[in-house]
């Protein structure tokens, strides 16, 4: 089974991806958080830095774009191609309001003509392999069924499907029945994404969908970065071993941030949000000490106490 590490804005930057691959063994594919065009049709410098091949040291990295029109997508693809990329992922699943009100991400799923317009780029760059990440719809799971003929008509190596609607965002449960209905209508290799938090979850998805091309995991890996390696080895380490690995992972990430960031406030702004997901079994009092720390020394002391 191929495992894909989902991109999450504000969490999985290049230092995080590099640290994860170093400490836990790499996922088969890592995706960058999506790159978008700003109002002046310019790129954010931090996005360019994040996808730069010079900064990414994982075995397989794929940049992701988000766009509402063909021309917008083509502009981003040209930039990525100039960087040397020959594999690009197209995001049609982001449910966040900022993207939805601009008609991007999950919002585009309610408009098959616009989906077809964006996907035209897949036929215009024959030396680039394209993949698609999507939800089952913006307002209804049925929207993906109307999109299946459009998706089938374009050159996509695989389609990753998160079976929630954009309107749901991350509430409720991923609807595997909706995924099954889309799978019956789509002739592309499929990757499953959504509510994968344990090895048992992986087993259940594989049992129901044995023909999957892969599984993509996002929040589950933020909570337990060892999830893929635990499934592959078939053994769940004891709590002490898991904390030891987390200390190494956190130390690797902290060292990388210290090397490139200016000031402890910036370092803390990148590290503290990770604890929204990381190590969910951690005592609430210890987690609060970490997230409320105002100085780097206090933060490090709290993390050391949590992972002792």
Automatic annotation (TrEMBL):
Keyword Oxidoreductase set for record: yes
Active site as annotated: 94 (proton donor)
Occurrences of domain DUS-like FMN-binding (ranges): 5-276
Cofactor annotation: FMN
The protein's Enzyme Commission number: 1.3.1.-
GO molecular function, one term: tRNA dihydrouridine synthase activity
Claim: Nucleotide-binding is one of the keywords in the record: yes
Top-level taxonomic group: Bacteria
Residue sites binding FMN per the record: 64, 133, 162, 218-219
Broad enzyme group: oxidoreductase
UniProt KW keywords: Flavoprotein, FMN, NADP, Nucleotide-binding, Oxidoreductase, tRNA processing
Family named by the database record: Belongs to the dus family.
Function text: Catalyzes the synthesis of 5,6-dihydrouridine (D), a modified base found in the D-loop of most tRNAs, via the reduction of the C5-C6 double bond in target uridines.
Protein name (record): tRNA-dihydrouridine synthase
Organism (species): Candidatus Avibacteroides avistercoris
Organism ancestry: Bacteria, Pseudomonadati, Bacteroidota, Bacteroidia, Bacteroidales
